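Example record used in the benchmark description.
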Amino acid sequence: MLKIDRSAVDTAIENMVLFTASIEVLADYETEKQVLVKRGEGFSKRISEIREEHAGTMIDRETVAKDSTSDYIYLSGKMKQLDDEMKIILSLQDQLKEDFRELRQKHLPIIQGTYRNDLSAKSEFRVNETVELVRYELLKAIADYAREVKKQQQPLLPLIGEFLDDEELMSNNAGFRRLFSSDSTNLSYFEAGKSVIAKNHVLSSINGNLHPEIRKPQVKDGE
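Model output (structure tokens):
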């Protein structure tokens, strides 16, 4: 019976384009990050190669070159070079962790400010004002409907009163008395769960009265 016109909201949802600037600054960060990622992948690849080469050189030294002093010295020197290179790469890996941290530190304030600015667009949907307006319109509609029920009942009451005033008759017709009790025209309502509308506000409306705490919100121009 009562339906909220959400066409403007649906149009806003359909046309919503948020976080475009955030996407751009994150893309800038990702571009710089990939340089470090590739560097790290290069380190890992070289470490794997060094380990394999070191193991092969050690085997050669202890087998092929075990009877040749010059070859043994040469291969030992080669292993030392590999060990030194490994130490350098491990040190560079530690430095790479710091490089990642510095990169994030560099982009953090940019991302934070840009995202905050993008996010501010969500405030175009004024939730509190919308809830207040919908609540008012709903409760007023309920009250108006219930008031009309009472209004149309009024012409019946003078004659119905003749029956209700007959105590002897009513003593055997309690159902008739209840049917015409003061709250019989109230609309039916039960609270199934939590609601943004207070129960006492609804109870006032189903009785045909708009609760004094409910006032029509001031809607800004253009809303």
